[in-house]
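Incident review: delayed structure delivery

Summary: a single-chain prediction request sat in the queue longer than the usual turnaround. Root cause was a stuck worker, restarted by the on-call engineer. No data loss occurred. The affected request and its eventual output are reproduced below so the record is complete for anyone auditing the incident later.

Affected input:
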Amino acid sequence: MSTKRTLILNKEQILQKSKRIAYQILEDNFDESHIVLVGIADRGYVFAQRLQKILQGFAPDKEIELVKVSINKVKRSLEASTDLPIETAKDKAVIVVDDVLNSGRTLAYALGAFINVPLKKMRTAVLIDRSHPQFPVHSTFYGQKLSTILKENVEVYLEEFDKQEDAAWLA
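Output delivered after worker restart:
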């Protein structure tokens, strides 16, 4: 197997894409006073924290709440938990956030955690969308769409989690 890696996004590009996603979220939720970002542990949550900070800077009049959802990705059935009660999202606009969208299973599981909560609307945001859908899930907001083969991997490094400079690599 090849160890060749190709840089997809560097630190500055990740920041630029994050700001663009934040603007798109604001445009989509112009009339909302309260937005709930649901970050998928681990890197999705870090990315959601960054989006929250950017959104608070762009729109200090909006309440931007952050919920962490942890999913058991090994099981073939939904097993998810949140750090705040699921009802936190009731009657609000919810954005489920992850670093990479591959098959859609992780996002589908995260969306499923909120299936019994009445929401105003639900959207998804990812840094990189690989476009290999196995589940009927798409990215509403994305930083980069990338056509890859299934054998390739996308590795995202976020400083707060990985203790190294932000970067996204195709390996």
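Verification: Helices lie at 11-28, 43-58, 105-112, 159-162.
Action items: add queue-age alerting; document worker restart procedure.
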